[in-house]
Amino acid sequence: MSGRMGLALTGATLLIAAVLLPERAEAQFGIRGGPLGVARFAVGHMLGMSRLRHSRMAVRGSRYRSAALRSQDPRGAERGRLANPYMLRAALTAQAALAGWQGGRRMQGWWRHPDGSYGWTGPVFWPFAHDDLTNAIILGDATSLSLYGYGDIYAAIFAPYAATELAAYTAPQGRRGRRVPTAEALCEASDSGGLPVDRIAAAVAPNELQRTALDELASAWSNARDIIRAACPAQAPTAAAERLGLMRERLDAMIKAIDAVAPPLAKFTDLLDDEQKARLNALGSERRAALASMQRKDLNKHLNQDSSKEANKDSSKDAQAAAACSADADPRYDEKLQRQYEQLVQQQWPANDIAATLRLDETARARFEVLQDTALRTMQTLSPCPAEAAATPQARLAAAKARLEAMLAAVNGVADALDDFEADLSDEQKAGFEAIGPKRGA
Fold first, then answer.
1. In the list 44, 50, 96, 162, which could disulfide-bond 438, CB 3.0-4.6 Å?
2. Beta carbons within 10 angstroms of residue 228's beta carbon
3. pLDDT digits over 372-386, tens only?
């Protein structure tokens, strides 16, 4: 196993230590949901490890790298016919996200998702929003949907990009060899065909009336994509408040998109008989079975490449992650692991350093602690633990909307706390606060 992978697993192990978060840390960091909330946040960093390993392999391939950076068509990597959709997602978003950051010199970014993809790609939040809704509602695969949460909110507060790096994403198209894709091109990345009409028609064999309803649903699905596209940023948000505002706009657009497709989806499914409904519902099962098969193949390759000792370590970590997601989980308290968790949070939220650097008075420091507390609480409200997919598209639509509404509420809470914190800061202090993210990414 490479040293880089070993470091990644070490970091994941440290996050799993949060399972054992004791009361003193709860009181200090304000995670009222208890240690299980933090444990379940850590699970997200474990679930994607296998996919992350192979995603990086795809990212390193020059063919996928050049295709992902082609600003006119960031979906060009699809021509490579990658078998695993997670690998495609990681290849596209990793290259696009890192193209502007630090000159694209590094293959990693601390704000990446556990599956190797990125929730923030330059100035764009949730570039594959439309695809993720299609996968969650029609195909019963809410994997990508569930990985958005605390990490993305944290990245909105402490964005790693400098202003000049963000500006490159919204600059006019220049030379043919341009490396940084445009924000518009990133927002177009979600346009991969819309509703899988042919697959649905093949599954349910609709009659004429049903086919008309299916066409209406497809049209609504395209309109939903346009609703999300309209929330694409015309300019790069350079301040934390602007980035949280963009998150709200994108989430609100996704919720409106769901509301737009709900009536035609209900109309179409109401016209189906029980057998047709069963075949439609089975599309999700087929998708999950196919993904499970891909992941087994990836795991087998990994087992063939690594020693049994290392493989057993990975299995042990997977077991820890599964245990943390269990409803019956009973975290034990351990002082050593408590200190490890406290160190982890202090690395992410260097409150003392920030207070000293910005010369915060007692009031401003207290407001910053509220901001920190509010952001950390989202670990519980936006748990990445996988949930059993609902049986029907309508039920999955309701679940997707509930998840987005929960995230919107979390973003609103953090935005309010940020507004309170910045209310009495000077322009110099605000500039110093904005500089923290790029410094941490250097």
1. 162
2. 20
3. 999 988 887 888 776
